[in-house]
Amino acid sequence: MQRRRSVPHTFEENIAAEKAKLEAQIAQLKPDPQMDALNKKIRQLETPSHTSEWLTSPGLQAPT
User: Fold this and answer.
1) Cα distance between residue 50 and residue 11, in whole Å
2) DSSP letter at 4?
């Protein structure tokens, strides 16, 4: 019997899910060092997301 595999998520979906999870945690916190650390993680997640958008943009095409 084979195990069923879930549908793989894209890189962008994984980043968005992690960002949403962290934002939900921040909403429950008062301003403190832990909140600052979560904000830093969110900013770090935005960097690869923007880079991925840039790399997949139609303006970035190899010359033909």
Assistant:
1) 12
2) P
Query: pTM higher than 0.85 for the full model?
Result: no
Q: Could you give the CA distance from residue 28 to residue 25 in angstroms, rounded to a whole number? A: 6
- Residue 25, C-beta contacts closer than 8 angstroms, at least 6 positions apart: 38
Within 10 angstroms of residue 22's Cβ, the number of other Cβ atoms is: 17
Nearest alpha carbon to residue 23 among 54, 3, 46: 46
b/e per residue 53-63 (b: at least 16 CB within 10 A):
eeeeeeeeeee
The amino acid present at 42, given as its one-letter code, is I
pLDDT tens sequence for the chain (64 residues): 677 777 778 888 999 999 999 999 999 999 999 999 999 999 999 998 888 888 888 776 666 6
